[in-house]
Design a protein that fits this description.
- With about 240 residues, the protein is mainly alpha-helical.
- The chain has a single domain (about 5-245), classed as Transmembrane di-heme cytochromes, Chain C (Fumarate Reductase Cytochrome B subunit, Up-down Bundle), CATH 1.20.950.
- Helix content is about 65%, strand content about 5%.
- The protein has helices spanning about 15-40, 50-75, 75-85, 90-100, 100-105, 120-145, 150-180, 185-190, 195-210, 230-245; strands spanning about 5, 10, 190-195, 215-220, 225.
- It is elongated and about 60 Å long.
């Protein structure tokens, strides 16, 4: 019997420049988080001796503040598109949020169709923008307001700064969770994701793409035998039979 093969295709999820901006955001946030914890926690105070960690924190802050500026400079259309899509919701987004518990448990089959961003990603992006702004503003107040603000003012700014960083860290943990649950890391490292997965999570977006490169490409190296339900069921039954013997 001839073996049936499936010629898979991949969809361009992230272009090169947005991926580089994402790398800048991730690296700058990591620097801020690790250096900030070193400066904040008494148990790590020994690592902050000499002032080098504080300098590293300032470097991370400069890189973090530069992210939206760099994005607008290197790919203004993509930056504005991301901002616009993160703020626009439709009826399918509402239906998706009502079933978000399924998505959280790793079940994306049967979810309402989504555009380039699903409703959860839109909320995540909004949170990143809001808490990034409060981190930057409170950080600038702490840096420039030491001589003019009283103890209460500095304490309030420090509290806002720490809580905002905590909120961003929670968002990061969620981001990493879904990245690994849905095996989405390849989309950021190579730019492409399998078309089958793209249609499961972003059907409306995939349908809007042109059937041409670089948006849709053939993946000749990943050709694999197609899954035949009958054979899969037989294999499971055979395995159960062997186990019971």
């Amino acid at each position: 019997m001839a073996t049936t093969t499936m010629h898979s295709r991949k969809v361009l999820r992230y272009r090169t420049r947005p991926r580089l901006v994402h790398a800048l955001l991730a690296s700058s946030f990591t620097i801020l988080l690790l250096s900030g914890l070193t400066l904040l926690l008494p148990s790590l105070a020994g690592l902050a001796a000499g002032g080098y960690v504080r300098i590293l924190h300032y470097v991370g802050a400069i890189l973090f503040i530069s992210v939206p500026i760099v994005y607008l400079m290197v790919d203004r259309p993509a930056a504005l598109e991301l901002l616009r899509e993160s703020c626009v919701y439709d009826r399918d987004d509402g239906r998706w949020l009502l079933r978000v518990y399924r998505y959280f448990m790793g079940h994306n089959e049967g979810m309402p169709p989504q555009g380039r961003l699903n409703a959860g990603q839109k909320i995540h992006h909004a949170g990143v923008v809001i808490f990034s702004a409060t981190i930057v503003l409170s950080g600038l107040i702490l840096f420039f307001g030491k001589g003019s603000l009283g103890a209460n003012g500095l304490a309030g700014a420090a509290t806002i700064h720490s809580l905002s960083m905590l909120a961003l860290t929670v968002l990061l943990v969620g981001h990493l969770y879904f990245t690994f649950v849905y095996d989405a890391l390849a989309g950021m490292t190579t730019g492409y994701i399998p078309e089958v997965e793209a249609r499961l999570e972003h059907a409306k977006w995939v349908d809007s793409l042109p059937e041409t490169e670089p948006w849709i490409v053939e993946d000749n190296q990943d050709d694999q035998p197609a899954a035949v339900p009958g054979k899969q069921i037989s294999a499971i039954l055979n395995r159960l039979t062997v186990d019971n013997e």
